[in-house]
Specification:
Layout: E1 4-7, E2 19-25, E3 29-38, E4 43-48, E5 52-56, E6 59-64, E7 69-74, E8 83-91
Antiparallel strand pairs: 1-2, 2-7, 3-4, 3-8, 5-6, 6-7
Amino acid sequence: GADVEQSPPVLSLQEGASYTLQCNFSTSSRSVNWYLQNSGGRIIQLFYIPSGTKQDGRLTATTVPKERRSSLHISSSQTTDSGTYFCAVQHSAPQASAACTQT
């Protein structure tokens, strides 16, 4: 399988501040998705970003495939940004699939 690490694991948002979340993966990826599970339990796809940089409002995502990392930057954070952020990496090797279960 493939390892995916996110840091920091827990982040306390202060309104108006900026934060960067990092995602590192152990094998080359075909695509990276960033998601937010908000306080109501709904999962929202924020970005599909195989490589490069994308911006959507106050959020900016960057993926560097050759360095096997992706980051999500939140600027001028608001209370509505709170929730669980996670990255999902689709790997180029077909046997390296990742399952995401919600309990």
